[in-house]
TrEMBL record:
GO terms for molecular function: hydrolase activity, acting on ester bonds. Gene3D superfamilies: SGNH hydrolase. GO terms for biological process: lipid catabolic process. Keywords: Hydrolase, Lipid degradation, Lipid metabolism, Secreted, Signal. Belongs to the 'GDSL' lipolytic enzyme family. Residues 1-26 form the signal peptide. Pfam families: Lipase_GDSL. This is GDSL esterase/lipase. Transmembrane segments: none annotated. One of its GO terms (cellular component) is extracellular region. It is found in: Secreted.
Length: 378
């Protein structure tokens, strides 16, 4: 009992000092003490800059609208993870993990890595990447640092349990694995069995994240990869009425359906945690694209037709706020904001369930008790 009271007192002091530091710097207090990001190129904020890989975008015109220029984000400015951080009240960018040298980790860390996937073999042809397993390993390094700084693992767990975690994984397991002839996965698995293989691996990873103290976890589904300019150009004879490569979208929707079931199962198993599904496929829809130029051409000039990266030092479109896609696969900052707003505060019940991120912030979770009834039903 005394030990528990001591841990709560220590945690209260940590949060008090954190809030005082924000006030002293003239900043508003964030809605949660920290925000941790796991993901691929939609969320990467510069981690690949530190890795031996050609999959990095630390050159103009990337970052043309970002305060410090080309940062490694696959965007002209902010990405989705950045827009969520801003809506959570963080007045500075969440630090990237880099090569483990980040020091301002109490506000959270972004572990995202362009080209990375759920499977370790995904993207290995592109050199070094922080796969989901690697990102979890990196997170454990940060958790140990937080425990050391706060004085104990118990205090750290209570602190981390109040934070928001987002994870956006699976795109590259299709784009840079299953859909490529250089991989054998499409010969080994049907779309159904491959999605199940990904889900089984992802289940272990999300359980691993839970074991580190994560309790409020937003799991993002996959966007409509068949609508990316690069894939529309590569599959001109396989386009549906929306001019998207329908077969690619059908395959990833199998994964999305299974992911929704997984979120429901994790909520039933862990009554002291809240997992929620962000319906990226729904958010990345024609409705969201209203007001944007949704074409087979991206805002920046890509290296060649059907490719993803912007041509270095090329001049992008002038009306960047009107385009859905910045390059062959990634959103403009304007689209990232449209997307991030619906993930944070859903525009319809289909956008996120059982909670959007703003609801996840406010949620009061019960303590871990085997006798506690399930707190959330999908």
């Amino acid at each position: 009992m005394a030990r528990g009271l001591k841990a709560l007192w220590c945690l209260a002091m940590v949060l008090l000092v954190s809030n005082w530091q924000h006030w002293a710097r003239g900043q508003a207090t964030s809605q949660v003490p920290c925000y941790f990001v796991f993901g691929d190129s939609l969320f990467d904020n510069g981690n690949n800059n530190y890795l031996t890989t050609p999959v990095k975008v630390n050159y103009l015109p990337y970052g043309i609208d970002f305060p410090t220029g080309a940062s490694g984000r696959c965007s002209n400015g902010l990405n989705i993870a950045d827009t969520i951080a801003e809506q959570l009240g963080f007045n500075s960018f969440i630090t990237h993990f880099g090569v483990g040298s980040c020091s301002s980790y109490l506000d959270g860390v972004n572990y995202g890595s362009s080209g990375a996937g759920i499977l370790d073999e995904t993207g290995f042809l592109a050199g070094e990447l922080f796969t989901m397993n690697t990102q979890l390993y990196n997170h454990k390094i940060i958790v140990s640092r937080i425990a050391k700084q706060l004085g104990s693992e118990e205090v750290a767990k209570k602190y981390l349990g109040q934070c928001i975690y987002v994870t956006d994984m699976g795109h590259n397991d299709y784009l840079n694995n299953y859909f490529l002839d250089t991989y054998s996965s499409s010969k080994i698995y049907t779309p159904e069995t491959y999605a199940q293989h990904l889900i089984e691996t992802y289940t272990t990873q999300l359980e691993d994240l839970y074991s580190t103290g994560a309790r409020k976890i937003a799991v993002f589904g996959l966007i409509r990869v068949g609508c990316m300019p690069s894939n529309r150009q590569q599959h001109p004879n396989e386009l549906d009425e929306n001019s998207c490569a329908y077969k690619l979208n059908e395959d990833i929707q199998i994964f999305n359906t299974k992911l929704q079931t997984l979120v429901k199962e994790l909520n039933a198993k862990h009554a002291d945690a809240a997992f929620t599904y962000i319906n990226s496929y729904e958010i990345d829809s024609d409705v969201t694209n209203n007001g944007f130029k949704f074409t087979s051409e991206s805002c920046c000039k890509v290296i060649e037709s059907g490719s993803v990266p912007c041509k270095p030092l090329s001049i992008p479109c002038a009306d960047r706020s009107e385009y859905v896609y910045w390059d062959g696969a990634h959103f403009t900052e304007a689209k990232a904001w449209a997307f991030g707003k619906r993930a944070y505060k859903r525009g319809s019940p289909q956008d996120a369930y059982p909670y959007d991120i703003s609801e996840l912030v406010q949620l009061k979770l019960p303590k871990n008790d085997a006798n506690i009834a399930n707190h959330a039903q999908l």
